[in-house]
Amino acid sequence: MNKLLIAFVAVLSFSSFVQAQGNIEAGKAKSATCAACHGADGNSASNLYPKLAGQHAPYLEKQLQQFKNGERANAIMMGMASVLSTQDMQDLAAYYASNTMTPEMVSPEIVTAGEKLYMAGKADRKMAACTACHGPRGNGLELANFPKISSQHPAYIKAQLEKFRSKERMNSPNGMMNDVAAKLSDADIELLSKYISALH
């Protein structure tokens, strides 16, 4: 059984026990502190900060938990998450998940080239297609905690792929994203980042 399948089964099993029970209105009130970086509705104006709108609530909660316990490193987010209770995280996750992420715009040339890599992967390097976990439109799979990646800032997507490739970021299930990113060239990452940002 390959690593991708093992990770899928493990995450799907875990997700059946952990389901966010957040309150959207409470999350909206609590999000005031987050708005400076992520925008009032989770559509951040700056590509330094990820868009959160429309992201799956369980995934958002997981990231906040990992910032709090140190499994995912970011000085600002570790500080912000340190004061959040589990209920706070669930409320915030529910609020952002209830909103809609605004897609980016890219050229037709990027769409054509990016679609091939995203949909088919790289057979010569035994890299699975991105669709295997994130779906053809980049909506991910909530039950398995595979995140929505469509419409995200391309610079943010690029930065995360580079961090997975360098193993600066190691919090994907069973290290699957580290394996995938290791097979991507700089040009691949640039292309995928732009293509994914326009999916919706």
Structural notes for this entry:
There is one protein chain. By secondary structure, the chain is mainly α. It folds into 2 domains: 18-97, Cytochrome c-like domain (Cytochrome Bc1 Complex, Chain D, domain 2, Orthogonal Bundle), CATH 1.10.760.10; 108-198, Cytochrome Bc1 Complex, Chain D, domain 2 (Orthogonal Bundle), CATH 1.10.760.10. It has 11 helices and no strands. The protein has helices spanning 3-15, 24-30, 35-38, 57-69, 75-81, 86-97, 108-120, 131-134, 154-166, 176-181, 186-198. The chain is globular, with a radius of gyration of 16 Å. The protein starts with a helix and ends with a helix. Residues 1-20 form the signal peptide.
Q: Outline of this structure?
A:
It is built from 11 helices and no strands. The chain has 200 residues and is mainly alpha-helical.
What value does the Rg take, in angstroms? 16 Å
What is the number of strand segments?
0
Structural class: mainly alpha
Q: Report the end-to-end length measured between terminal Cα atoms.
A: 32 Å
CATH H level, superfamily name of the largest domain: Cytochrome c-like domain
How many structural units, i.e. domains?
A: 2
Under CATH, the topology of the largest domain can be stated as Cytochrome Bc1 Complex, Chain D, domain 2
Which regions are unreliable across 5 or more consecutive residues at pLDDT < 50? 5-18
Count of helix runs = 11
| Shape by Cα distribution | globular
Quaternary organisation of the protein chains:
single chain
Mean pLDDT reading: 92
Q: What CATH architecture of the largest domain would you give?
A: Orthogonal Bundle
Q: What is the helix content? A: 40-55%
Largest sheet: none
Strand content: under 5%
**N-to-C SSE series?**
HHHHHHHHHHH
